[in-house]
Amino acid sequence: MIEDIGNRIQSLRLARSLSLSELAQRAGVAKSYLSNVERNIQSNPSIQFLEKLADSLHVTLDLILYGDAAKTVGQLDPDWHQLVKEAMASGISKSQFKEFLEFQQWKQNTDQSK
Question: I need a surface site. Which of 18, 47, 76, 77 has the fewest CB within 10 A?
Fold first, then answer.
């Protein structure tokens, strides 16, 4: 599926009537790099690059990565998606987040047993 990312980005951009320059400017990325991704010359763009495009195109990262399959496979509620993005941006690690969840589960179980 990775080879389809460029085609998906281009389709999303054109559906919004954006030029290559407009999307690059909105996302804060190099126009030449975006062009290379769309033409599948650069077939392994970073997640940060793809997140910038997703935000600028007002779509989920999953839609860019997986296309329409993302809509049918465990679509994350937009509020949860935003919360996860905020947690990632804050610098919290996966292990710290997991520890927090385990603590919350322990606390809930302790409260229920009283």
Answer: 77
